[in-house]
Design a protein that fits this description.
heterodimer, A: alpha/beta, B: alpha/beta, two-stranded antiparallel sheet, 11 helices
């Protein structure tokens, strides 16, 4: 917890239990309320790849300043079962509070050294006695938290109403509100005044509360995506489910295919025909898509592939986070062909880069991978409204019927100075051509002559040589003249920023290069950054240091680079980064 | 009125006597009969000797990945249903690597005409055994004779809920052309299997062998292609192979059920950013 004078500026609340207990549900309500109270909110949801029974926890972090990731410790822990008490009590910060259910759960002595306090509430008993069902324990628990955080009742009641009214009716809404009041009353009797953490009430200012997956889906809709094909896979399914609801309203469609191979091939068929097409997947699905990925490159068909990384390899840990699929898209599939790989570091970038991805795909007529992670895909953050007025659609060299009619002897794969050929669509007059998965000539017909092969390979690969002006460059953060440098991509964004703040407190100044386009690799900017550092740390969530290896393969001056790796299936805590940096220096 | 030569780009280079010449001929006949506009026709092929069709047949063409003819063709059809979409695969493409897609395309009843060129081996890759090769078939890949039971694609199609199931013979392009024509007119997934000899690699399943083992179903006036049980009996009978329209049924096509705008294909959407509408949707994230 951080304080600014007397008022609380940053607090983390965790709800923990077993899957099926209502942890995620309760957490979602709390997060929404805090957001509507005007706080910057970020969630960190840790749930198993299972419907019931295994440990689940939900951390809501609320701050007066913009936040991008989890904090090091939690300040309030609401535990629904023994395992949660035992496993998560260690996460409590100095002066933290542990709240739990009932008398029969594990007795853990409050930590004297940390000054934590413990309180027990008969949540399940109260639920059964007052409402006849144990499930009401969740709202009673929320009532307890309501007292401790001094939550705004009207906002809380409005959120409860929104969540329950449509599906369960007014009676249930009222019961849940009563449950909250009950919990609040209980807490008032037990919790001491000095233990409460009243949070300021501010204006919300119409901010959004949105996950990475939703931001990407919304970005796709805004970008003109009208064809989406996918196979269910955690953590990418939410993108598709959101689009399934809205694309038809914009005369677009969503197809659930029989597998990921069909998904990408169908998207390519749609794109070839002129639709802006997309698919979304994670590691296992991406592996299945590799052949079609190479087809997109060979046949120069635009397509956007969203990859929400999860812990691998193989089936891995479907609901846990990792950054180990970078190699898959940089080096993946057989043969040489052009590809663009971009990685958003914030929720805003999830939205913006999706739009960018579609424009890049059609301009350079190649596959574009939007590489993000479970920790962004499945967590919610408060953000300012997206600026739709800045959204631009750029379809590259897509020919209009009038332009095509005037072309003599149209060639779909015409050799041009920039390698990009004018693109006709099936159904257009004067544009007859063939799309070939084999090597082909300018008209698309199969051609195995070495001379043509050399020219075609150069044509395809050269397209991205002049793409740097259109690609998102890496972004520099921190103190420009600092000699300690940190490089990272994707969701480590927030954790690195906070680690730098921690280092600054200890007198160590650092700067951070946020990689945003991973391929084509921004050699110059990275070289420049490394040249201006005495020590460089590459921070990433994988075992083998994939980003680190990529940098080493592209940039010459890498001798002073060191890896900070975490591959436990959890994202970094800022303290882990700052401690390792300090130790190494 | 277009003629067959309007669909003939260049002379093919398949082996002399290859069954695919018959299929090429039938396709041209049908295209001319229906007076199709080559620019409104998309021919999607897979990997195999049949894959050369795009080089010879005048239309928009997509030579896709091995086994992926149907997902590719489906993406085309859904994006612009005004286009006539014809898919062609060999027995390897359709009944081996692409088998999953076949069943699901049938389930969707997507309006594509799908020709499966069945020569009972993998010709392009020099003669390996295929899912339709008979038990005991000796080839470069099964020198001791195949130990797998052959697949009957049409039985599978019938069991999967196929709404148009037919079989032709490349040695009879006239009948084949009329089957393709009916398939193209059919509202839904039309499967036309084409028995087709490979004169280079298959010395057993030859034109003669086929002629001795086929019969024309529709010559029997008592046969009703709308009768599913009859179709099943004929397909499973251990006698000669039936040719003709084996089964037909009316079911709504996938596009008719999923496309939001029946009049405007989604490729003709104006992609101009409608920020007012999008603002309203964005509001729901609060």
């Amino acid at each position: 917890m951080k304080k600014e004078g007397q008022k609380i500026a940053d607090i983390s609340v965790m709800i923990a239990g077993k899957a099926g207990d209502g942890v995620l549900f309760t957490g979602n309500v709390l997060a929404k309320v805090l957001k509507r109270q005007g706080w910057e909110v970020g969630t960190y949801r840790d749930f198993p790849s299972n419907i019931r029974g295994e440990p689940t926890n939900y951390t809501i972090r609320a701050s007066l300043k913009k936040i991008q990731g989890r904090s090091d410790e939690i300040d309030v822990l609401m535990a629904f079962d023994c395992a949660s008490i035992i496993n998560r009590a260690g996460d409590l910060a100095r002066g933290g509070i542990l709240l739990c259910d009932g008398q029969t759960l594990a007795r853990l002595a409050p930590s004297k050294s940390k000054g934590t306090t413990h309180h027990r509430f008969p949540l399940r008993k109260l639920a059964r006695d007052n409402f006849g069902k144990e499930i009401f324990k969740n709202m009673i628990a929320l009532g307890v938290l309501c007292y401790i955080l001094d939550l705004d009742f009207p906002i809380l009641e409005k959120v409860i109403s929104e969540v329950f009214l449509a599906k369960k009716g007014e009676e249930i809404v009222q019961k849940n509100i009563q449950a909250i009041h009950l919990g609040c009353k209980q807490a008032k009797e037990i919790v001491e005044k000095k233990e409460i953490h009243p949070l300021l009430k501010k204006k919300d200012e119409n901010r959004l509360f949105i996950s990475g997956d939703d931001a990407i889906a919304f970005g796709a809709l805004a970008a003109g995506c009208r064809f989406f094909a996918a196979y269910p896979i955690c953590p990418a399914t939410e993108i598709w489910q959101w689009l399934a609801k809205y694309l038809p309203q914009f005369n677009g469609i969503v197809v659930q295919t029989e597998d990921e191979i069909a998904a990408l091939n169908m998207a390519l068929g749609a794109s070839y025909t002129g639709a802006r097409a997309m698919t979304s997947t994670s590691g296992p699905g991406a592996s299945l898509m590799m052949e079609a990925f190479s087809l997109a490159g060979m046949a120069e068909i635009p397509v956007v592939i969203v990859h929400v990384q999860r812990a691998g390899p193989s089936t891995g840990m479907p609901t846990k986070t990792e950054q180990a699929d970078l190699n898959q898209w940089i080096y993946g599939s057989h043969g040489d062909f052009p590809r663009i790989v971009i990685s958003p570091g914030t929720i805003e970038e999830c939205f913006e880069f999706t739009i960018k991805a579609f424009n890049l795909a059609e301009k350079y007529q190649c596959p574009v991978i939007l590489l993000t992670e479970h920790v962004y895909g499945h967590n919610f953050f408060s953000v300012r409204k997206f600026d739709l007025k800045r959204t631009r659609i750029d379809r590259g060299k897509l020919l209009s019927p009038d332009e095509l009619i005037n072309i003599k002897d149209y060639k779909r794969y015409k050799f041009t100075s920039d390698g990009i050929s004018p693109r006709a669509l099936p159904g257009m007059r004067n544009g007859l051509h063939m799309v070939e998965s084999n090597e082909h000539d300018e008209k698309g017909y199969r051609d195995e002559e070495p001379e043509n092969r050399i020219k075609m390979m150069q044509k395809r690969m050269k397209k991205l040589e002049r793409a740097s002006k259109d690609l998102v460059p890496p972004k520099l953060w921190g103190e420009r003249d600092a000699e300690i440098g940190i490089i990272g991509f994707g969701s480590t964004f927030g954790h690195i920023q906070e680690a730098m703040a921690q280092l600054k407190e200890r007198g160590i100044r650092a700067k951070y290069l946020q990689m945003r386009t991973l391929w084509p690799f921004p050699v110059e900017k990275v070289e420049q950054f490394i040249a201006g550092c005495r020590e460089v740390f590459v921070v990433e969530n994988n075992y083998s240091g994939q980003l680190s290896s990529l940098i080493r393969s592209q940039v010459s001056s890498t001798l002073k680079m060191r890896n900070i790796l975490k591959y436990s299936s959890q994202s970094f805590r800022p303290i882990e980064i700052s401690t390792q940096v300090q130790k190494a220096l | 009125m277009r003629r067959e030569k309007d669909f003939h780009l260049i002379d093919p280079t398949w082996c002399i006597g290859c069954g695919i010449y018959g299929i090429f001929s039938a396709l041209k006949k049908t295209a001319a009969k229906l007076d199709l506009d080559p620019q409104q026709l998309v021919l999607v092929t897979g990997i195999g000797c049949h894959g050369r069709l795009n080089n010879y047949f005048k239309a928009y063409g997509f030579h896709s990945l091995h086994g992926r003819t149907l997902p590719t063709a489906s993406g085309v059809k859904l994006s612009n249903p005004r286009l006539h979409v014809v898919g062609v695969s060999g027995d390897g493409d359709a009944y081996s690597i692409g088998l999953g897609h076949l069943i699901h395309s049938i389930r969707r009843n997507i309006n594509i005409t799908y020709l499966v060129v069945d020569n009972r081996l993998y010709a392009l890759t020099q003669g390996q055994t295929s899912p339709t090769s008979h038990m005991g078939y000796v080839s470069v890949s099964t020198p001791g004779g195949s130990k797998e039971h052959p697949l009957d694609g049409l039985q599978l199609a019938l069991a999967s809920g196929g709404t148009f199931i037919a079989r032709g013979f490349s040695g009879d392009p006239t009948q084949l052309a009329s089957l393709i024509e009916e398939g193209m007119k059919h509202e839904g997934f039309a499967l036309v299997e084409v028995l087709s000899p490979c004169v280079t690699h298959n010395k057993i399943i030859t034109y003669e062998w086929f002629r001795e083992n086929i019969y024309k179903l529709n010559e029997d006036s008592s046969y009703d292609p709308k009768n599913k049980m009859q179709a099943w009996k004929r397909l499973t009978r251990k006698a000669k192979i039936p040719l003709g329209l084996i089964y037909v049924e009316k079911k709504p096509s996938y596009e008719s059920l999923v496309l939001p705008d029946k009049k405007k294909p989604l490729v003709f959407n104006d992609l101009e950013v409608d920020d007012l509408r999008l603002e309203k949707i964005m509001h729901k994230f609060q």
